[in-house]
Design goal:
The structure is a single chain. Helices cover about 55% and strands about 15% of the residues. It has 14 helices and nine strands. It has helices at about 10-20, 35-40, 50-55, 65-75, 80-85, 100-110, 125-130, 140-150, 165-195, 200-205, 215-225, 235-250, 255-270, 280-290, and strands at about 1-5, 25-30, 45, 60, 90, 115, 120, 130-140, 155-160. Strands 1, 2, 3, 4, 5, 6, 7, 8 and 9 form a nine-stranded mixed beta sheet that branches. The termini are far apart.
């Protein structure tokens, strides 16, 4: 079957390219048309509009920034919404609030469609390598249909249960990610300001028991001052906010996350929103310079 893919950003484009290169017949659309050209070259059909994607396909993957963007693409709240989702399976692979996803699930099913919640763990590099981890939630039959289609994008797929358990799992994983990278940035800032040999510092961290694929990538960025985006400050701050809101709603303490939220907010205020999340080190630098 032909599969629709809407949203060809930092993550979406490499994900869609992996599908196309694996032989999946794709119909794609992106708001910035130039992002579609790599997909066209890989054999995908570039649709003229989102509604054109829904007309040509019955399974549509959306990899979009937030709920507002998804609602706009689906024409939610308008008569066109029913036409877009009825007898379709909508696969939501971005990160939104669990409450938003729960409501979207109900609305799509009410219109005779199917919904799969499928956020992924990983940033641009794992997306390019087809090594994302997908956390699926929704109806068993729809999930069973989708899992084979995800293989070119994902190293592993895990069924988490009913909506919104996939997004709740993603938020829990992101606490570990955000606090880990923030701690690494603080350690790097400490080492640099105390005049340590940064190549030695990196070699020791990379050789130690706390080393991981994410620590090696982010530490290289920190030491070389390469903040080319894999997961941006703006996106991580958004995810941080979603986690904090979910924690407050559930009455769960999240003190480390709250500190990270402040630091990423300071980094954004310094004008670094489009840089990689490792650029949170800028907030540490600004605090140190303010006390010097």
């Amino acid at each position: 079957m032909d599969i629709g893919f809407i949203g060809l950003g930092v993550m979406g484009q490499p994900m869609a390219l992996n599908l196309a290169r694996a032989g999946t017949r794709l119909v794609v659309w992106n708001r910035s048309a130039e992002r579609s050209e790599a997909l066209r070259a890989a054999g995908a059909v570039v649709a003229a509009s989102p509604s054109d994607v829904f007309r040509q396909t019955r399974v549509v993957i959306v990899m979009l920034a937030d709920g507002d963007a998804i609602d706009t693409i689906l024409a939610r709240g308008t008569p066109q919404f029913s036409e877009n989702v009825a007898e379709h399976t909508i696969v939501h692979m971005g990160t939104t609030s669990p409450d938003y996803s729960r409501g979207l699930d109900a609305d799509i099913r009410r219109m005779g469609g199917h919904y799969v919640e499928c956020p992924v763990s990983g940033s641009r590099k794992p997306a390019e390598a087809g090594e994302l981890v997908a956390m699926l939630a929704g109806e068993e039959a729809a999930i069973a249909q989708m899992r084979p289609l995800l293989e070119p994008m994902c190293l592993q797929t895990v069924v988490c249960g009913p909506v919104p358990s996939g997004l709740l799992m993603k938020l829990a994983i992101n606490i570990f990610l955000i606090t880990t990278v923030t701690g690494l940035a603080e350690a790097t800032h400490f080492a640099e300001r105390l005049g340590l040999d940064m190549q030695q510092f990196r070699a020791i961290v990379d050789a130690g028991q706390m080393a991981s694929s994410i620590s090696r990538v982010k530490l290289l960025k920190l030491v070389t001052r390469d903040f080319d985006v894999q997961a941006s400050i703006t996106d991580v701050l958004k995810n941080n906010r979603l986690i904090a809101e979910a924690a407050r709603e559930a009455g769960v303490a999240s003190p480390l996350l709250d500190v990270c939220y402040a630091l990423f907010g300071e980094t954004l205020a310094l004008g670094h929103g489009k840089l990689d999340m490792a650029a949170v080190v800028r907030a540490f630098e600004a605090r140190t310079d303010a006390t010097s």
